[in-house]
Amino acid sequence: MGCKIEYKSSVARDLKKLDKKIAGRILEQIESELEQDPDRGAPLTGKFRGLYRYRIEDYLAVFAKTEECVLILRIAHRGKAYR
């Protein structure tokens, strides 16, 4: 079951703050793993209910699932992802 991956425009700003190697590994893992199985992410609670997180090394990708795709909303270090 494949799923299309889309990125919000603010994700580009998030990735520019990271080292290029780290950013590349994050994108590679998102494209390979979340595209194949969008249910890999863990659901968030509280004010972020309805969104999901996916951990990649020390970083989190926060995303929303739709019927057609996975929309990546934010990529940030685990300590700063929910700010």
Q: Could you explain the architecture of this structure?
A:
- With 83 residues, this protein is of the alpha+beta class.
- It has one domain: YaeB-like fold (2-Layer Sandwich), CATH 3.30.2310.20.
- It is built from 2 helices and 5 strands.
- It has helices spanning 10-16, 20-36, and strands at 4-7, 42-43, 52-56, 59-65, 69-77.
- It has a 5-stranded mixed beta sheet.
- The longest helix is centred in the middle third of the chain and has 17 residues, at 20-36.
- The mean pLDDT is 91.
Briefly summarize what is shown.
With 83 residues, the protein is α+β, with helices and mostly antiparallel strands.
Which characteristics define this entry?
83 residues; alpha+beta; YaeB-like fold; five-stranded mixed sheet; 2 helices; 5 strands; 29% helix; globular
* CATH homologous superfamily caption: RelE-like
Sequence stretches where pLDDT stays below 50 over 5 or more residues: none
CATH hierarchy, class: Alpha Beta
Oligomerization state: single chain
Rg result: 12 Å
- Strand order of the biggest β-sheet: 1-5-4-3-2
DSSP E strands, number? 5
Main beta-sheet annotation: 5 strands, mixed
Tell me the distance between the termini. Answer: 32 Å
Binned strand content: 25-35%
Shape: globular
* Helical amount: 25-40%
Count of individual domains: 1
Overall pLDDT confidence: 91
**CATH fold annotation:** YaeB-like fold
Class from helix and strand fractions: alpha+beta
Number of helices: 2
